[in-house]
Design brief:
It is built from 5 helices and 2 strands, in the order ααββααα. Helix 1 (17-26) crosses helix 2 (33-48), helix 2 packs across helix 3 and helix 3 (72-80) runs parallel beside helix 5 (109-121). The protein has 133 residues and is mainly alpha-helical. The longest helix has 17 residues, at 88-104. The protein has one domain. It is globular, with a radius of gyration of 17 Å. It has a two-stranded antiparallel ribbon.
Length: 133
């Protein structure tokens, strides 16, 4: 008789099965779990940064007519910041504040990733006071 562990092995799921299925349907080229997770984080950052409509983030998301030029690696790293916040609004603030710094100083990819890593290592992020609450 074989003994099978009841616990699931590997990394815990970062995105829901429904989101995973949606990304697989829309982006046929995404074949691995890692690429699906990266796409999820990229879209999280894209939405937090105003979907490319905010000129402050043109360094990361440059709208050219109907198309976009993306700094995908940086956006994916920014999207991962949201995992550390319980409140979606706090996550958006953290992503935007970090992106502001990256865009202001036009950090190269390696420097931007280092800055995001430093942000993720913070014990606790200082949440700015919201005007409405």
């Amino acid at each position: 008789m074989e003994n099978f562990s009841e616990s699931r092995r590997g990394r815990p799921r970062k995105i829901s099965a429904a989101h995973e299925e949606l990304y697989q349907d829309v982006f046929k080229e995404l074949t691995t779990k890692r690429s699906l997770n990266n796409m999820h984080y990229l879209w999280s950052a894209y939405n937090a940064l105003g979907k490319g409509k905010d000129p402050r983030y043109a360094y990361l998301i440059d709208r050219i007519g109907e198309s976009h030029r993306w700094r995908k690696t940086i956006l994916t790293a920014l999207g991962r910041l949201g995992d550390q916040c319980d409140d979606e609004r706090d996550a958006t603030d953290w992503i935007c504040t970090t992106a502001d710094y990256i865009c202001t100083y036009h950090l190269k990819t390696a420097d931007a990733l280092e800055h995001v890593r430093e942000q993720r290592e913070l014990e606790q992020w200082e949440v700015p006071i919201h005007a409405d609450g």
